Amino acid sequence: MIIVRSQDIADTARHVSGPGWDSKRMIVRDDGMGYSVHETRILEGAESHLHYKHHLETNYCVAGEGEVVDVATGETFQIRPGTVYALDQHDEHILRAIKGDLHLVCVFNPPVAGTETHNADGGYELAD
Which residue among 27, 38, 63, 102 sits deepest, i.e. has the most Cβ atoms within 10 Å of its Cβ? Predict the structure, then answer.
């Protein structure tokens, strides 16, 4: 059994950040689960252009309000607590936190190593 507490990840190598966001990598590749789980916060007013070419991602909103834009279609979807959005086609997207910080529980497949930050394309490289 694996038990991880958010406060135990804070300020470690598995607590990474970038412009307008931070993420605690709760379950990572080396845990052997076949996916990774992240506690991610997008700061109010932040906008991120993301494209996970190597990963599928599912996000569950637990706090805040925002929107996700499908770059291919221009369609915009509202994100509020209780909303799940899944990037099942390696969807290029724009994520915005509009009202309060957007708090998400994110699941990545394949799993990340835990220390990655976004590359120039707005995604993660595959873990070694």
Answer: 102
